[in-house]
Amino acid sequence: MAQSVVKIENLVKRYKELIALDHFSLEIFEGEVFGLLGPNGSGKTTTINCLLSLLSYDKGDIEIFGEKMTPSSYDIKSKIGVIMQNVAVFDELTVYENIDYFCGLYVKDKAARKQYVDEAVKFVGLEEFTKFYPKKLSGGLLRRLNIACGIAHKPKLIILDEPTVAVDPQSRNKILEGIQELNKQGATVIYTSHYMEEVEQICSRIAIMDKGKCIALGTKEELKKQMKNTETITVEVMDVTEAQLEDVRRLAHVYEVTLENGRLTVKYSGGKHNLLRLMTYMQEQDIRFGRVYSELPTLNDVFLEFTGKQLRD
């Protein structure tokens, strides 16, 4: 069994009357790319700040690499890389100097540090920009610099908070590929994003937070199976009687049937071969139909069902 990298137990954080974290518990294992999702105000950022001992909390325990995390746990902190949503680099330093500075906080040996910095520059694809100052970089290149500063010292745990906000598609793909490569090299990753397609692409497990609690946890497949709506089939139909609609409602696993403007929509909860059963019934009844669509739930559908909110609220 994989070793525990992060273990949060019964965490409570209050801001006067507001409960930001309400007995929140979570465990993340070695080798995971772990997605942490939640609407604004759900407690994600508070969780990360408590995890890093940047915030005190009222109750609970946090262990990282099997050791209790405290503000003075410098040995643990040296194994963590943090890339926050707001880019944090020095405008007075060049790209190379920025990466060298942040790497130097953890790696004192000059020869080793030079190797690490060179590898980080190459890793994020900034070889042509090492002498540039941050103000001269595009948004996407600035994000890549931010990532390089956070991972140059080769941390075992990497926390990325919205690393692809407002970047071009090319830079976004480069960043996502980089995260997957870091994971292959042995890093455990905690990833937050408002882009569901990114989370589906790279995360091995996902936790959904709301109101300071973990309300759902699992792989994307496991989360989708927890939904009531597991499949929606839409059929363009010519003529359907009320009796036939009632028959469709009685088909296995159907929980909702609607007919509007010649479009029959059938929603299912569980079951296999739903489309085959529906098509067989329509052929038996000689119901004429046109195009047929079968839609499985997306991670965005899962999020909406669990929280009642769109992630980009």
Which descriptors would you attach to this protein?
34% helix, Alpha-Beta Plaits, elongated, alpha/beta, 2 domains, 11 helices, Rossmann fold, 313 residues, 29% strand, 6-stranded mixed beta sheet
Topology:
Layout: E1 4-15, E2 18-29, E3 33-37, H1 44-51, E4 59-64, E5 67-68, H2 74-77, E6 80-83, H3 95-104, H4 110-124, H5 139-151, E7 157-161, H6 169-184, E8 188-192, H7 196-202, E9 205-210, E10 213-218, H8 220-225, E11 231-237, H9 242-249, E12 254-260, E13 263-268, H10 274-284, E14 289-295, H11 299-307
Parallel strand pairs: 3-8, 3-9, 6-7, 7-8
Antiparallel strand pairs: 1-2, 1-4, 4-5, 9-10, 11-13, 11-14, 12-13
Could you report the average pLDDT, rounded to the nearest whole number?
93
CATH homologous superfamily placement of the largest domain: P-loop containing nucleotide triphosphate hydrolases
- For the record, the CATH class of the largest domain is Alpha Beta
Specify Rg, calculated over alpha carbons: 24 Å
Query: Number of helical segments?
Result: 11
* CATH level-two architecture of the largest domain: 3-Layer(aba) Sandwich
SSE-based structural type: alpha/beta
Helical amount: 25-40%
CATH fold call of the largest domain = Rossmann fold
Strand order of the largest sheet: 6-7-8-3-9-10
Contiguous low-pLDDT stretches (5 residues minimum) are none
Number of domains as seen in the coordinates: 2
Number of strands: 14
The helix/strand order is EEEHEEHEHHHEHEHEEHEHEEHEH
